[in-house]
Amino acid sequence: MCNYVSLDCTINEEETDGSLPSNKYSKTSNVLTANDRRITRCLSDTRRAHEREPRVAAPDPYQLVRGDLHALYSDIQTELGTEHDELHQLANYYLLGEGKAFRPMIACLMATACNIHTGTSDSCLASQRCIAMIAEMIHSASLVHDDVIDRADKRRSKPSINKLWGQRKAVLTGDFILSQASIALARIGNEQVVILLSQVLEDLVKGEFMQLGTKENENQRFAHYLDKTYKKTASLIANSCRAVAVLSDAHEDVQEVAYQYGRNLGIAFQVSSSSVV
Question: Considering 41, 74, 155, 183, which has the largest number of Cβ atoms within 10 A of its Cβ?
């Protein structure tokens, strides 16, 4: 039976000699066999039934983790608290617009999926949410340093930090954000997670160096671009996804799936962003 649309698609064993049906033509003509025609009708009816089904809109991923992202930026501002007023102002400057929170959103979604898979919880754990926060802090610091390297005048439609306060203060601001992210990371108390997020920092530096160079050979240029894209963008997403899987006590296979998902998504996200004119 064809359960999807309750159609009779029973295969005639006498016609097929007990084997699975195929779309081959008869040996003596170009006319389909009776059994082939029956299968073709079944597939056609199934397709039409599928086309008649109402389309269900995909859920908004941000809404799925809205509770976890609600106070994300205020928590980051708390982490960046300092008695030095100007440093506090600079460190929070890019966070005031609150961005898209793409990286924290992915981390929280992966955390929830892993927790449901392992039976740990049906939502994001506090330690996993901290990973999402740290990911956004590392991303913010990388933007500050990128603008210094590129001598950019604008970021998110407003003057860049280096434009308003100078290159030296901008460098120190990026360093300060990274230092506070490292403190938050250490508080989680998981050595494997510390190693994963530390790898992100190494990749960011290597990615910046790779961006300063290029390859003459076309094939080498594309491989160079993908490697650079992984280090500058995808590594943060990939290792954040693996980190929340680790904190979910997921099996190593699940951790690897989480990592590969983040890696591929990160590369696709950057390639898509780069292609927008």
Answer: 155
Give the helix/strand (H/E) hosting 159. Answer: strand 158-159
Residue 218's pLDDT is 72
Q: 36-40, 45-49, 54-58, 60-64: which range is least confident on average? A: 36-40
pTM of the model: 0.77
Confidence check: pLDDT of 14 > 50 = no
- Which residues, listed in sequence order, are joined to residue 159 by a DSSP beta bridge? 154
Rounded CA-CA distance 160/153 in Å is: 5
Average pLDDT for residues 147-160, to the nearest whole number? 90
CA 176/CA 88 separation, integer angstroms: 10
CA distance 102 to 143: 14
Closest CA to 199 of 153, 151, 263, 109: 263
Q: Cα–Cα–Cα angle for 86, 75, 108, nearest 5°?
A: 135
Name the 3-class secondary structure at 101: coil
| Cα Rg, the chain, nearest whole Å | 26
- The number of beta carbons lying within 10 Å of the beta carbon of residue 263 is 18
Q: What DSSP line would sit under 191-256, residue for residue?
A: HHHHHHHHHHHHHHHHHHHHHT---SSHHHHHHHHHHHHIIIIIHHHHHHHHHHHHHTT--HHHHH
